[in-house]
Structure formats: C-alpha cells, structure tokens
Design goal:
alpha/beta; Rossmann fold; 6-stranded parallel β-sheet; 6 strands; globular
C-alpha cells in the first residue's frame, strides 16, 4: 500500500489473522487416527485450486515414494481441480498412495496423527491452515512463496522452506523431514509461545487498541 498507493506508513496497522491454539488442541484431543497403513503419513489441506499447487505436490510425492514406498498422502479439501488432480495421480502412478478425503468439518484427527504437513502453494495470504497445523506441533515443509509464510517462519523457525514451483526441491524437503523426525512434539506452552504473534487474545488486544 505504501509502494503502490502512496499511503503513509504511519497510517498503516497490521493485525495478523489469529489462531485459537487452545481450541485447536482441545478439538484434537482423543481423536483416533483416520489413517491405515504404516506410513509415514503426509497431509495437505485447502481448496483444490491452482494457487495451492497440488499438481506440484503430486509430482513431488512421486519422487518421495522412491525413498518411502509406504508413504501416504492425504489432500483434504474440495474444489474445481479435484477431477484433474485425481487423473494426475493416476498418470503419475501414485493413486494407490494418495487419498482425497474431501472437505472435513473436523480435520484435526488427520492433522494430529500426520507425520508431516506440506504447504506447496504458489502464493498465499496468511495461511490459516498452516497456523492451525502448527498449533498441534506437526512438522511442516512449505514453499517460500509470496505472502505471509516467511513471516510465520520468523516465529516458528522449525518450518522448512523450499522454492515454489519446484517439485524436485519440494520432494527433497519432504524426504529430509521424514528422514529426520523431530521426535517429541512441542508442549502446549511451547506452541503458544511460538505462535504468540498470532494468538487470538493478542489479536483482540490489538483491535481494542486500534479502536
């Protein structure tokens, strides 16, 4: 807005989209795993459209299977590219290892029991799905795409960033993350500290000060 609209920087206020860490963790408690098979289990979620780059993710996953032949990928969501993506999975020979569960009102069982979350986007705003996944302490590989991903990484440095639109680099990031699991996941307090800039109460206080 400063560069393109000439608005003075001192008139701008940035307030992040918040994530309710406690709510997410509470909804995930006691959830049974929806996965079958030994895994590792990789998930992605979001609307099935071009900016999410699921086509790149499928290409990358075909490479991942060479290192982890029992790996499984679940892509949660619905959208205009569903038929095209399923066809691509067949053409790549990965359909046996890729599931499209559709829109999930409660995605937390998938997230909680996943070994890795992948954000393959071509561009993003501030991805709420990423914040929610981080609230459960799940390891993340994400593209360093235009948008707010790098700003989130400043707070949660465990996010592995790879170049966007590069299925080879994405595959390498996934393989590296699966080869070196982080072990015990962070505690609720550690998560809250890492996501403090995106905490719901923090956002409420910022809006209150602004008003």
């Amino acid at each position: 807005m400063v560069e393109h609209l000439g608005i003075s920087r001192d008139k701008l206020v940035r307030i992040y989209n918040p994530v309710d860490v406690e709510m997410v963790r509470r909804l995930a408690e006691g959830a049974e795993s929806p996965f079958t098979g030994p895994g590792p289990q990789v998930i992605a979620m979001g609307r099935l459209q071009r900016e999410k780059a699921y086509d790149v993710l499928l290409q990358a996953f075909s490479i991942v299977l060479k290192s982890f032949p029992q790996a499984q990928l679940a892509i949660l969501g619905e959208g205009p590219l569903e038929t095209q993506l399923k066809k691509q999975a067949v053409e790549l020979g990965v359909a046996h290892a890729v599931a499209f569960p559709g829109f999930q009102k409660n995605p937390w069982p998938y997230v909680k029991h996943a070994d890795l979350f992948v954000l393959a986007s071509r561009f993003e705003g501030l991805p709420n799905a990423l914040l929610e996944v981080l609230a459960l302490g799940v390891p993340v590989v994400a593209t360093d795409c235009p948008g707010g991903v790098r700003e989130i990484q400043k707070s949660v440095r465990e996010i592995v960033l790879v170049p966007p639109e590069d299925h080879v680099a994405l595959a390498a990031g996934i393989v590296a993350a699966l080869s070196n699991p982080t072990g015990e996941r962070p505690s609720s307090q550690q998560v809250a500290e890492g996501l403090s800039d995106f905490d719901l109460q923090h956002a409420i206080r910022e809006y209150s000060q602004l008003f």
